[in-house]
Amino acid sequence: MKVRVRFVLSVLSLLVSWTTSDPVLTGFLQCLPKQPQSAYPIFEAIYTHENTSFQSVLLGYIRNSRYSTLATPKPLAIVTALHESHVQATVICAKQHGLQIRTRSGGHDYEGLSYVSDVPFIIIDMFNLRSIDIDVADESAWVQAGATIGELYYEIANKSKVHGFPAGTCPTVGIGGHFSGGGYGPMMRKYGLTVDNIEDAKLVNVNGTILDRNSMGEDLFWAIRGGGGASFGVILSWKIRLLPVPANVTVFNVKRTWEQGALNVIYKWQYVAPKLLDEIFIRAITRLKNSTEGKKTVEVSFVGLFLGQRDKLVPLMNESFPELGLQLKDCFEMSWVESTLFWADQPIGTPVNFLLNRPQGPPNFFKSKSDYVKEPIPKQGIESIWQMMLKMDKVLMQWNPYGGRMSMIPEWETPFPHRDGNLFLIQYVTYWVEEGAETLKQHLGFVRKMYEGMTLYVSKSPREAFQNYRDLDIGANRQNHTEFETAKVYGSKYFKGNFDRLVRVKVMVDPYNFFKNEQSIPPR
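The chain above was modelled as a monomer; its predicted structure follows.
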């Protein structure tokens, strides 16, 4: 009782100091201590424009400088939840006062939808809710949504040297969004996606109630595993299945320029990489670089992971993929957790506690798009896109092979539908550091031209896309108005036939569309 009285008095005293606050915001703040769930003081978690730390808190988890400009819409307040009850209270009070919420775990939404809106809104920032409970005996873990991939990897390795989890390669990505969008990584061909290895979840629904798998039901549990949690509630935590990894794995990064025969190697890669042993994953990254003569050229990095030792890998590769020319000297053996640092572009020998580093504001500007490829691209097609890239600046393509476990899971088992029949996923990226409208226009033009140039060679009807590589170019509902036909366009690209079931779930759990953004699931 004393805690609650102290909490109420603290919030009221805080409100008195905000004499110029927006009346809607004031009503929202006055609502918070009235919620029965708010037994834990929330005022310390609230940041408004009057708070001197507001800007640093806002920028701290923005990962794309395109959404950190003066013109970018700002939230009325940021609630850096310190307890699950803070999320409940925020949902209830935002709903009562007509405020939209945006939920941010790690801030890596490519289009900033977790922290930007065109209407008055509140950010629920999850970075304080980051506990990780590893149960090696049960081969499972509970992970809160505000934890990062790097923190998860670190904690798994701290408890076991022979367990891992098939999530992504960027250690600062937040668990909440990465998992709910169908995150993947270099163990995808062996174990599938994050969503293929989730056993339970907790979320706050539109009524401010905490639900687990049993109480939310299988339809909602299905929807949040690949359909994006932000359309259905606020994800609090996930229970994941830990998976076996060898004590030592092998990594490599073999680079070939156009002049060194990269065109022949990547052409053959399309036929080989999706059919190798499930334990082998080889990503192909195509970049621009300056040749020894000072001319711009194309270089492809073939970055690989093998869940085994190099003495076995090299003969396998020389038999099935001799064009790569992999040698023992190219291969490095290390623990699985050390391999996650390698995939994060860190030098071999980087201390494992690097994985605990948190984001520190936006590193650069970027724009990304995605595609799926179902038939090998002819050499002249690859050559034409490379010729196009040579006329650009700071662009890359990342090709990620499918096959293995990905081909064995039916496309309707989770909302993520891109399974059997796909050879690889493409990510197109352009990045820059210079501010200004002309630079923005130029780089957006680069990536859109690359995307257009690949039309002949990628999936069709629909032209599929990966939700975690968010792209508003493929369709968006603007100005807080959700048109079903617009949603069906981007929904079919992200979810194919699963879009219809996602809509049915939305109607059941959020019929008045409180949880929404520019690419959310509509309730029809």
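The chain has 16 helices and 18 strands.
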